[in-house]
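Weekly puzzle thread! Below is a chain. First person to post its structure in token form gets bragging rights.
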Amino acid sequence: MEDKDKEALYGEAVPGMEDGEPQAGPGELPESAAAPGAPDEAEELRRRLAYLMAEFDNFRKRAARERDAQEAYGNEKLLKAVLPFLDNLERALGQEGAPAEAILSGVRMTYDGILAELRKFGLEQLSPLGAMFDPAFHEAVGVVPWAGKTEGTVVSESRKGYVLNGRLLRPAEVLVAAAHPADDPRRREE
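Winning reply:
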């Protein structure tokens, strides 16, 4: 890149250039740099480097503080959304002598409400019953012979699975159908 281009790009005059023509030969200092009282270019570069180092150190410290704050308070919005349901459960625990049906109804409403609130944060339940076993979303806790079901079909769920914004949070624990002995073609030949 020529000195004229550098000047146009950086908006600064290139030392030793006046009117686009070099004023000193290679290895020579231009007269303006050798003049008494002129700022020392090396000292200016040291000053700018020290400023940039301090600026970067401040940025690093600020980023660390922000990361720590995010870690400490990042769940605040979610927890504020869950607190009303905790209050409802505490009220249910204080209902000694109330009919079991009323308490069960209240717990169901609380359960439905908390699921609806968690959906706002991107949480979805997996619904594996009747689907084919998928090791990416299911964890098989057992295989059972099941008449009328295709081998590999999920027939029971022992623990719900959840996805957070499309990413698996926890796999569903499921029972998977195996070929029923009566449906096994090898047994029919015997």
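Puzzle host: Confirmed. Bonus trivia for everyone else. The chain has a mean pLDDT of 82.
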